[in-house]
Amino acid sequence: MKKILVIMNNLAGGGAEKLLIKLLEKFNKNKYEITLFLLNNEGIYLRELKKFKEIKFSYLTNEINKKERIYRIRKLVHKLKKLYFCLFPNYMFNKRLGKNKYDVGIAYLEGPTTLFLSNLKNCNKKIAWVHTDLKKHRILSKYLERRAYKKVDNIVCVSNDSKISMDELYPELSKKIEVICNPIDKEEIIYKANEKRINIFNKEKLSLISIGRLVNVKGYDLLLQAHNNLIKEGMDYNLYILGEGEEREKLESYIKENNLEKNTFLLGFKENPYPFLKEADIFISSSRYEGYPLGLCEALCLEKPIIATKCTGSLEILENGKYGLLAEVDSVESIKKNIKKMILNKELRERYSVLAKEKIKTFNINKKIKEIEGKINE
C-alpha cells in the first residue's frame, strides 16, 4: 500500500478545496494510505473530514481569531512564521507526524503548499498542482516559486491555458509539466440539485447567479457595476451571489449605496449550492483569472446558459464561445453587454442550455481519478 501525503493551505470554501474533498472521497483506500496536512487548520470543509475515518490528519498552525484587537499584528507574525516553516518544514512536520516516510507527496495548491513540499525531506516523489494562471496570480516571489517547482518531480496544471502560462514562465521546467483537468462528478451535482426545492427566487423575473468566494479575483465589483448600470437602464431581473470572503463588506456597501437591495442578494456560503443553481436562469462568472473554474462546469451539468470572462480555463471549457457567451476580462461594459444580450434573447438561452447537454458528455470523473492515480503510481 502506497503512503500518500497531501498538503493543502486550508479547507476554505474555494473550488480547489472542494475538489480536494472529492479526491479524498474517490481515492482507492485499499491502494493508498493517505495523510492530509494543512498549513492552516481552518475552513468550512474541515467538518467534511469526519467522514474520512481512514485518513490521517494533522496541521501546522491554528486559525487566528479575527475578533482579537491585535488581529492585524498577529496575522503578520503568522504570515512570517508560515513562510519560515515553508522554507524549513522538516522539524515542525516531524513534530506533528513523526519521521514518517511517504511514497508520494502532493501539494494540491500553488504557493506556500508547493514551497512547503519542495523543502520537505519525507517524500520520495513530489507532485505539485497548479489551479490558476501563474502569470496573473502569484503568491510567492518568482525566485521562490521557480526554486520550489525545480525541486518537485511533476507539475500538474488543471487546464491547457494554465500549462501555457507555466511553460512561458519556466520553460526550463516544461518536460515535467502536464495537464489533468479537474474531476467533475456530474451525477452527484444533478442528484444534489434535486435534494430540495429553493423558493427564494422571484419567478416573475429572470435570475442571474454566480458562485464563488467574495474575493477580488472573482470580479464581483465589476459584476455589480455592470448590474447597476443595467438596472438604471430599466432592466428588471435579480442577481444572486453565493459565497463568503473578505470583500463582503465592500460589496454590501456598494449594493446599499446604489439602492440595489431589491435586485441583488448575497446569499453567503452554501454547502449544497446546486438547488440554487438549478433554479436560476443564467450563470455568470466575472473572474479576473481562473485555472479550471469549477462553477462553470457545475452550471453546464445543470444545463444553464453561461456568461464568463475570457480568462484561463473559461475559454477552454466554453471552447472560445461555443458553449457560452464570453466577456472581456476587467471590462464592466463587456460584462454588461453580454448580460443584456442573454437576458433579452430567450432563443439564445435555450440554445446554450441544449449545448450544455452536449458538453457534459465529456465530463468523466472516473477517467480523471484514474489519470491522477496513474500519475501517483508512476
Describe it:
The chain folds into 2 domains: 2-184 and 364-377, 3-Layer(aba) Sandwich (Rossmann fold), CATH 3.40.50; 187-362, 3-Layer(aba) Sandwich (Rossmann fold). The protein has helices at 15-26, 71-87, 90-97, 112-119, 142-151, 160-169, 186-193, 220-232, 248-257, 274-279, 294-301, 314-317, 332-344, 346-359, 365-377; strands at 2-8, 32-41, 56-62, 102-107, 123-130, 154-157, 177-179, 206-211, 237-242, 264-268, 282-285, 306-309, 325-327. The chain has a 7-stranded parallel sheet. Strands 10-9-8-11-12-13 form a 6-stranded parallel sheet, with helices on both faces. The protein contains 15 helices and 13 strands. The protein is of the alpha/beta class. Helix 2 (71-87) packs parallel to helix 4, helix 4 crosses helix 5 and helix 8 (220-232) crosses helix 13 (332-344).
Features:
Rossmann fold; 41% helix; 2 domains; six-stranded parallel beta sheet; 19% strand; alpha/beta; single chain; 378 residues
- Secondary structure: helix percent: 40-55%
CATH class designation of the largest domain: Alpha Beta
Shape: globular
Helix-strand sequence: EHEEHHEHEHEHEHEHEHEHEHEHEHHH
Per DSSP, what share of the residues sits in E-state strands of 2 or more residues? Answer: 15-25%
Span of the ends, CA to CA: 14 Å
Major sheet: order of its strands?
3-2-1-4-5-6-7
Q: Give me the count of strands.
A: 13
CATH superfamily of the largest domain: Glycogen Phosphorylase B
Show the helix and strand layout.
Elements: E1 2-8, H1 15-26, E2 32-41, E3 56-62, H2 71-87, H3 90-97, E4 102-107, H4 112-119, E5 123-130, H5 142-151, E6 154-157, H6 160-169, E7 177-179, H7 186-193, E8 206-211, H8 220-232, E9 237-242, H9 248-257, E10 264-268, H10 274-279, E11 282-285, H11 294-301, E12 306-309, H12 314-317, E13 325-327, H13 332-344, H14 346-359, H15 365-377
Parallel strand pairs: 1-2, 1-4, 2-3, 4-5, 5-6, 6-7, 8-9, 8-11, 9-10, 11-12, 12-13
Helix pairs in contact: 2-4, 4-5, 8-13
